[in-house]
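pasting for the record
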Amino acid sequence: MDNEISVSLTTRNRKLAAHMNADGSKTPRSRKLRQLRWWVDGAEVTETLPKDTTAAGAKKLRARKEADLNAGRIPLKPSPKMTFADLVAHDRACIVDLQPNTRQIHKDAVRRAMSTITGDKIVSSIMQPDVAALKAGMKATGDSPSTINQTIRVMSAMWNRGMQGPQERWLVRFNPWLKSQVDSEPRPARRFTADEKAAIFEAADVWWTLYLVLGLSLGLRKNELAHLRWEDVDFEAEKDDEPCPVVMIRSHKAGVADGCPLLAWSVKAKASRREIEIDDYVVDMLKRRHLKSDSPYVFVSAARLHHVQAKLDAGEWGVDDYELLNNTLRDFKVLQGKARNLLAERRGLVVHEVPWKLGCLHDLRKSFVNASARRLKPDALLAVAGHSDPRTTLGYMTRTEEDSAQVRAAGKLSRTA
């Protein structure tokens, strides 16, 4: 650098509102305001230090600031006009290498935050009242405490990333999202009873029957079912010289097969990569489905694949902007309604007299884990479920304390193996 930057430290007393004493008198109050100052191109730049900075700490900060400025480790001029939208764009570049589902969570959280905090709002002016307004707005629109907390966690991480690194140090100076989460209780798992399962299968068509069988007998996640390809089903696999067909859950690259586009997809986590043995009746159902399939995917039609690829090629959808199997939750709720009607007819009751709490697709997986806990050892249960953290598995189970201890011990072993 041609001209050395000199940083000065100034201290002055800032007058505060007087303290009102019990006898009605007032006591003047003030605190020391410490600022760093330097000049760039004839313009003065100032930075106010935190109010709890001591005199010795301020001197150290001045020396560090001067060294960083002259070494080019931080910008000479901060950008106080950076908007929320600017910070979002910066953060998306920081997380580009993360899993697609993580980027989708980030995108959803930003969308919810921008419903209250506009994109043109200056980042330095976003404070705790803005966080409180966002929480109140989300609660008013019916968002659950877990959704609110997820949004706050994403925003807090975004602010933290804005404060990291020598070049990004000026992006964010204060994180208003810390300690802002709301109290929440975990959503109780919806475990379908034997009668409910039987009614659901009776009301289901061929497509839904296979989908439900894989969900309830293998515990696959919704995205794992959607992206399951025929190449992931090994009908000829063997174990100990005996036939042992398996379903393989693994990431996929984009490509083309039999004239149909293959879409890139990544499993949720390392522990999600697994092989699951399948029973004979599941093998028979898959083979019958395979004979009639026009697609390289088990559940996605060729027409749907071409439609998704066309949207991606046209730039109308991003890689994280679509559901490969759309409307499955809506259709599953309709299916549950039909099953409830069947139970009502069978019991001679009016429909509303049959208790039925609507479940989501993930409840199929929870029902599988809970049922499998009675027949699988804890380490095998963690492996089949594709969980790296035993606490997740425990949340799915109706269990004794002994069961909990065994699953936790299995989780410790899997992490140290």
